[in-house]
Amino acid sequence: MKKLRIFVASPSDMATNRAKVETVASALKPLADNLGIALEVLDWRSVVPDMGRPEKVILDQLKPTEWDLFLGILWHRFGTPPGAQDPQTKKEYLSGTEEEFKIAYRLWEQYGKPRIMMYRCTLPIPPDKLDPDQFKRVKEFFKQFDAIKGEHPGLYQSFDTTDAFEKLLLDNLQKLLLDFGEHLRGKPVAPEVVQAYAPRIPVNLPRRAPFFGRYKEMATVLRALSPEDRTWGALVDGIGGIGKTALAVEAAYLCKERGLFKAFIFVSAKQNILDPGGIRELTPAARTVDDFLNETARVLGQTGIAKLASQEKRSALIDVLHSMPTLLIYDNLETLTKEEQEAIADFLRGLPAGCKAITTSRRRGGEGAVWLRLEKLDWEAARDIIQSEMANDERLAGKLRFVGEGRWQELYDETKGSPLMLKHTLGLMRVRASLTFDGALDMLRGNRDQDLQKFIFQEARRELTANDQVALRALSFFVPSAAFEVLMEVAELSRNALETTIDRLSALSLVDVLAGEERYALHPLTRNFVRDELLANAKIARETGRRFAEHWVTYARRYGGYYNYKTYNRLEAEWADLDAAAEWLWQTAAVQGEKIDDKESAARLNDLSRSLNAFLFNSGRWDEIEQLCARTYEAMLALNEWSKAGWQAYRIAFIHYLRSETDQTARWTDRCAEAWPRGGGKYEQATSMHMRGLVAMQRKDYDAVEQLLRDGLAVSQDPKNDELVSILLTDLGILEYERKHYDAAERKYREALALDEKSEDKEGQATCIANLSELACDRERWTEARKWLEKGMQLAREIGRQDLIAGTQRSLARVHEAEGQPDLALPPAREALEIFERLRHRDLVKARELVERLEAKMSSKE
Fold first, then answer.
1. What is the C-alpha to C-alpha distance for residues 706 and 697, in angstroms, rounded to an integer?
2. 546-774: which CATH architecture?
3. Which long-range contacts (CB under 8 A, 24 or more apart) does 442-449 make?
4. Which of 11, 203, 704, 767 has the largest count of CB atoms under 10 Å?
5. Which superfamily does 215-373 belong to?
6. pLDDT at residue number 679
7. CB within 8 Å of 339: residues ≥ 6 apart
8. What would the mean pLDDT of 413-419 be, rounded to a whole number?
9. Is 50 exceeded by the pLDDT of residue 809?
């Protein structure tokens, strides 16, 4: 992407406005990204501390020659002298801002860059802040913009509020972006594009859930949030699980329906949550007052505010809220200290007209708001919850009808009017056939002092059915989730049985049902419970794990292999579980030298490795290949499977060859040579010669290379194997290329390509074409290179082979560079570099040199 660097200069009285620059840049990021432009705001606060004159330290690191835009903001202060002279006038600079401006202005005079945008604040100056000398310097500075008499004639714009500045800057920068984008694209940016990437109104409310009762409390909250009420909003407190957050969120949705606010922001300090799966710790969005303010600013799109000091931050956020009628929900404030809570209340008291807030806490606190203590849910609302749950499950309905509605209130009494506790208890009654109404009451009475979450988890564990346990055991092997059909196979449960048990486990919060998908996952706490207790029996654990691994071995065999390019996306989607299966097979095989605990697991590990190798190689998971093949090599040695061990060693050797790690290539090639004579045929013999030839190639022993490759060709011709012959011919072409015998290299590449086309080997074709395009580039035959590249890129992307995609992109960049188009060359060059860095490929240095050369050319153009 093309960078647009913005340097911001201002004295300390404009800190809030200075922060707005980053806010505006963040708001314009979607549009900038669409235009291929990266906005970068340069700020002295990002400078690394160093010794010397402070302004020089800043300018040494934020080099003025790299500024695309100088943005200056002045009000009543001009700033502090930086301790340096103007090299032209020999006068002392009166402020760092002046020094920065004059440097930018003289660069603009000489080079037409950076563009200079100056803004003047006309807000009335508080008498206690006015420094006449400072203000005089500001006025003198702006006099110099006069077209006739000024030292630096130009146009500046004025504003009288922070909000006005933000709107002005947003408009100015958007126009500048569009002009810049038009220049880059060579055509105007369509209006619908501008509209599509316009900043959005912020709303981050949690999902709306069914809400019962609380009519009186809701009326109180809504009245507090109305424009007629003079408070900043409502403070809701009460015990845990009583429904404070639910009330606040429902109130926000009602306000949203009525159009009372333009933005709705929810920030929580909640550190854990009570649910049937156990105590689940949360990562709160906020732990301090600053966190609350930072998160509020982030949701509003005002990212620059987070960098301000605390007091400045509050003022800046209040300024933003003046132009955006907002409802704030600050949740779970009891986790903050008393001082922090008071600071939050102080901030909320300063909310501008049109903004309101709801805070929730287990403790009373705060002033200037309508206080509401949320007591237990009334009986009528609790009865509505019970009836709602009954409507969703006939078994539960039967249990409750059996005892009669007259006794339902006993359940309400034992749950102390807590909606959370009531729903959990009803859920247990629904999924546990043996749990009667009286049993539920006894359970509540016997555990009233225990943590609700621990209590429910313990009760659920005691009553898990055999099918529940089977499903949980199976699900614990999946990372991170399992599709229904696969879970059914691994658990060995019928569809009806699994549907029933999933419903039970979901109701107990032991299983998470992923929204919009028929996939299921375990909460980490539940997974630990299953592994510790339900898989304590080693025989059961091994049987379940074997079914899990067997499924993925079969899956890899079906969608992997060397020519199934079109199904590699299926392997990509399930890679986490395929990797987990490989890990389980390795651990279960327990290979220690020549000893092995489970031969079947070792054999399956080889099947899995063989099926996954091409996918892993093409997708660039070379480190994963090395680990998987090294483990499988050890397992095959222990089984005396020499041919299979040799192939595992070969795959590792080839990765090291592509990384120019010659010693490691030789080490694993020697292992091939040791294994294959004991269990291989002519194909393995020729492949061994091919690998030894590659080792000699890296050592530049070209005579040895030629002899080894020609010997390999002789062996592979009897019986003839076109795939291996093509590989050896390609290697001979590389040898001639290294010798700079370009005509001979081209003949070998074309001969290999003909064989690959005959056998319809797309990977072989893509390899030969990549070599031919690189050769054409080296010979400066750019038209010929383009012809190869068009076909080569299509093939490389079709098979998804990352190293060939990178090689083709690098060649394409070279063609663009030769044609004098570094702007077109840089994107493919960078893509090639990114891939080569990830692969640690031998061509990494060349790719990096190309990118650096192109970047230098682009900089010189600017």
1. 9
2. Alpha Horseshoe (1.25)
3. 444/411, 444/414, 444/415, 445/414, 448/414
4. 767
5. P-loop containing nucleotide triphosphate hydrolases (3.40.50.300)
6. 85
7. none
8. 76
9. yes
CATH superfamily for domain 775-862: Tetratricopeptide repeat domain (1.25.40.10)
- Two tokens at 763? 């990977």
How do strand 511-513 and strand 519-522 relate by DSSP bridges?
antiparallel
Please write the tens of the pLDDT for every residue from 112-171. 999 999 999 999 998 888 999 999 999 999 999 998 889 999 999 999 887 688 888 988
Class of domain 466-536: mainly alpha
Domains 546-774 and 775-862 share a fold: yes
As given in the structure block, the two tokens for residue 622 are 């070379």
Residue 694 Cα distances to 625, 646, 648, 711, 733, angstroms: 19, 16, 17, 13, 12
State residue 455's pLDDT score: 36
Residue 488: C-alpha distances to residues 493, 502, 512, 535 (Å): 5, 11, 16, 18
Please name the residues in contact with 487: beta carbons below 8 A apart, sequence gap of 6 or more: 471, 474, 475, 478, 498, 520
pLDDT, mean of residues 654-668: 96
Measured CA to CA, the distance from residue 384 to residue 379 in angstroms comes to 9
Facing residues of 116 across strands? 70
**SS3 state at 287:** coil
- For the chain, the average pLDDT equals 87
Question: pLDDT at residue 372 above 90?
Answer: no
Residue-wise pLDDT tens digits, 297-346: 888 888 788 888 888 888 888 888 888 889 999 987 877 777 888 888 88
Cα gap 440→442, rounded to integer Å: 5
Question: With bands split at pLDDT 50, 70 and 90, how would you rate the model's confidence at 515?
Answer: low
pLDDT band for position 19 (cuts 50, 70, 90)? confident
CATH code of the region 2-196 = 3.40.50.10140
The model's confidence at residue 769, banded by pLDDT at 50, 70 and 90, is very high
**Could you tell me the pTM of the whole model?**
0.52
Alpha helices in 144-286 (DSSP H): 162-185, 191-196, 215-225, 244-257
Q: What is the DSSP string of 658-702?
A: HTT-HHHHHHHHHHHHHHGGGT--HHHHHHHHHHHHHHHHHTT-H
Is residue 21 a contact partner of residue 302, using CB atoms and an 8 Å limit? no
Q: What is the token pair recorded at 238? A: 């009460």
* Domain boundaries, given as residue ranges, for the chain: 2-196, 215-373, 379-462, 466-536, 546-774, 775-862
* Candidate from 7-21, 304-318, 637-651 with smallest mean pLDDT: 304-318
- For the record, the structure tokens of 686 come out as 């020729």
The span from the CA of 232 to the CA of 230, in Å, is 7
Whole-angstrom distance, CA of residue 156 vs CA of residue 635: 75
Query: What count of other Cβ atoms lies within 10 Å of the Cβ of residue 794?
Result: 13
Q: Is the pLDDT score of 513 beyond 90?
A: no
Rounded Cα gap, residues 773 and 790, in angstroms: 10
Decide: 21 and 164 in contact? Cβ < 8 Å. no
